Amino acid sequence: MIVCCGEALIDMVPVKVPAGKKPDTETGFLPYPGGSPYNTALTLGRLGVPVQFLGRLSRDFFGEHLMARLIQNQVRIDFIIRSGEPSTLAFVHIEAGKEPQYVFYTEGTADRSLRPRDIPGRLPEETRCILFGSIAMTLEPVASAIESLIFREHTSKQGRERLLISLDPNIRPFMIPDRKAYIHRFETWLRVVSILKMSAEDLAYIYPDRDRDAAVERVLSRGVRLVLLTQGAAGALALLRGEGNEVLQVQVPGFPVTVADTIGAGDTFHGAFIAWLELHDRLSPSQVASLTRAELSEALGFANKAASLVCTRYGANPPTLAEVKAVKD
């Protein structure tokens, strides 16, 4: 079982209004379910991996839609709290060849209102991995709630190997009022994180004065075992710190596709990589540490295929396992 923690929101995705039609504007917006951890949970569910979403959802009609989509995609909802606050909205601006830009409306919304006391006292025995990150970790009280969970689970073995904890910061700079404080907090999370998935832009935001290799070295020195660096159309790079502290580096190219938009691509990549580990019985800190070059390459390729497919669709619409397997190398 994989537990995904964080925001569940509505992406307002721009669409062109046909000429001569009302209203008098060139662009309208369509609501799509979204939020980085939410998208990752959907990815895992569609890939046939047991997954649970932990968060707080509104009872408004957007919240009902978010909840129904989880259920339809085999995502368990035991750890979802329903509330009367409204759903978070994220308006998206898309330009060809650029990363999507977002404006978030989060004040007093349901998903940001998750509190430490809302966290379950214990996770199911079958839980093997916790995923967290994104804008939830820039907002209170939800950031402190999720933080309390990952620190608790890292120190509690509960008669088994520690859970694997995976982080995707999915940084939106305008959501971070104090960059220095955020980076300090980010580096405290790294002490309990085994897998860190980042975009090249995320890495540059955190460590602007370091080149890529120096920045990755810094991350690995904080305790992270595996760094997954997504590079858009250029593919993805994995850097694994082995048991002897040697670093194994593997890179795979991207898959050329006709892009509708890139919303949810990184979230899909993250979920697909974790799904590959689960499907191959490699989902634990010790098993990640012993991944071979061939296994890393296969896992990266699987995640890249899934991410490439979501780019051919509007909004975050992850592929199924059959769809990923149908993509030719």
Write a structural description.
Helices cover 33% and strands 23% of the residues. The chain is an alpha/beta fold. It has one domain: 3-Layer(aba) Sandwich (UDP-N-acetylmuramoyl-L-alanine:D-glutamate ligase), CATH 3.40.1190. The strands form 2 sheets. Strands 1, 4, 5, 6, 9, 10, 11, 12, 13 and 14 form a 10-stranded mixed β-sheet that branches. It is globular. The chain starts with a strand and ends with a helix.
Under CATH, the topology is which?
A: UDP-N-acetylmuramoyl-L-alanine:D-glutamate ligase
Distance from N terminus to C terminus (CA atoms, Å) equals 29 Å
- What is the overall shape? globular
Low-confidence stretches: none
Task: Give me the CATH superfamily.
Answer: Ribokinase
Q: Averaging pLDDT over every residue, what do you get? A: 92
Index terms:
329 residues; alpha/beta; UDP-N-acetylmuramoyl-L-alanine:D-glutamate ligase; 10 helices; 33% helix
Would you kindly provide a brief summary of this structure?
This protein is an alpha/beta fold.
Layout of secondary structure:
Blueprint: E1 2-5, E2 9-16, E3 27-34, H1 36-46, E4 51-58, H2 61-72, E5 75-76, E6 80-83, E7 89-93, E8 101-105, E9 129-133, H3 142-155, E10 164-168, H4 179-189, E11 195-199, H5 200-206, H6 212-221, E12 226-230, E13 236-241, E14 247-252, H7 265-279, H8 285-289, H9 293-310, H10 321-325
Helix pairs in contact: 1-7, 7-9
